[in-house]
């Protein structure tokens, strides 16, 4: 069985969970707080960051982008016309470009600040970065997300999916980031109908079900988080 070290609100881990869901794989999930710097986890990945996937003892694959490439190389052909990374080079460039946009730029400007300030700080002791949220960072993230939603509107308005005519890594990367923000109730869906319609398509896929069931001790998700007709 495939094992995935993750955190429920680690957007990169969520991307991998969506990816595995599209391959019909239900992994064994092990929750990991990277701030603990556990020795056994650092042996698996010296970077000490989630996600880390283990297919068997000799195959340890760290990092969301690396995991996505590994699965395309080892199983991508099996998906046929539903392959998540296109065959032709230029289409692959666009998927990788957008996957990086959401996995890096969106994460730095939105998800990281919101999840760190509203979740991680709440559950960690002060000596490990816990404490009260920095509301300036929360406000900055809430402003930044509007730029990204406008970009999603632009992409989704002219294409069936974000990178083209079929679902790809780009959609999963974007949806993974947005799902964390949606959990916290910080996505202004009412102002971005096209982005909302695209997200509802991804959210309705079977691969998304496990994410919608995620809960954190003492924290309830936003009311629309698990609603497919939000």
UniProtKB/TrEMBL annotation:
<feature type="domain" description="GST C-terminal">
    <location>
        <begin position="88"/>
        <end position="225"/>
    </location>
</feature>
<keyword id="KW-0808">Transferase</keyword>
<feature type="domain" description="GST N-terminal">
    <location>
        <begin position="1"/>
        <end position="79"/>
    </location>
</feature>
<dbReference type="InterPro" id="IPR004046">
    <property type="entry name" value="GST_C"/>
</dbReference>
<dbReference type="Pfam" id="PF00043">
    <property type="entry name" value="GST_C"/>
</dbReference>
<dbReference type="InterPro" id="IPR010987">
    <property type="entry name" value="Glutathione-S-Trfase_C-like"/>
</dbReference>
<dbReference type="Pfam" id="PF13417">
    <property type="entry name" value="GST_N_3"/>
</dbReference>
<dbReference type="GO" id="GO:0006749">
    <property type="term" value="P:glutathione metabolic process"/>
</dbReference>
<dbReference type="InterPro" id="IPR036249">
    <property type="entry name" value="Thioredoxin-like_sf"/>
</dbReference>
<protein>
    <submittedName>
        <fullName>Glutathione S-transferase domain protein</fullName>
    </submittedName>
</protein>
<dbReference type="InterPro" id="IPR004045">
    <property type="entry name" value="Glutathione_S-Trfase_N"/>
</dbReference>
<comment type="subunit">
    <text>Homodimer.</text>
</comment>
<dbReference type="InterPro" id="IPR036282">
    <property type="entry name" value="Glutathione-S-Trfase_C_sf"/>
</dbReference>
<dbReference type="GO" id="GO:0004364">
    <property type="term" value="F:glutathione transferase activity"/>
</dbReference>
């Amino acid at each position: 069985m495939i094992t995935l070290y993750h955190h429920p609100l680690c957007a990169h881990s969520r991307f991998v969970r969506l990816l595995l869901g599209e391959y019909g794989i239900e992994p064994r999930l092990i929750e990991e707080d990277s701030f603990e710097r556990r020795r056994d986890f650092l042996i698996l990945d010296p970077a000490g960051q989630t996600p880390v996937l283990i297919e068997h003892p000799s195959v340890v694959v760290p990092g969301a982008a690396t995991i996505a490439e590994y699965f395309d190389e080892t199983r991508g052909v099996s998906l046929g016309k539903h392959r998540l990374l296109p065959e032709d080079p230029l289409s692959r460039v666009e998927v990788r470009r957008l996957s990086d946009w959401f996995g890096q730029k969106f994460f730095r400007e939105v998800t990281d600040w919101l999840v760190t300030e509203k979740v991680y700080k709440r559950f960690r002791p002060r000596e490990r970065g816990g404490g009260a949220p920095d509301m300036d960072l929360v406000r900055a993230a809430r402003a930044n997300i509007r730029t990204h939603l406008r970009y999603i509107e632009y992409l989704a308005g002219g294409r069936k999916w974000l990178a083209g005519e079929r679902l790809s890594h780009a959609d999963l990367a974007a949806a993974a980031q947005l799902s964390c923000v949606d959990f916290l109730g910080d996505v202004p869906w009412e102002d971005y109908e096209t982005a909302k319609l695209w997200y509802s398509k991804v959210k309705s896929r079977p691969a998304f079900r496990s994410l919608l069931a995620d809960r954190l001790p003492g924290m309830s998700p936003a009311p629309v988080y698990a609603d497919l007709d939000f």
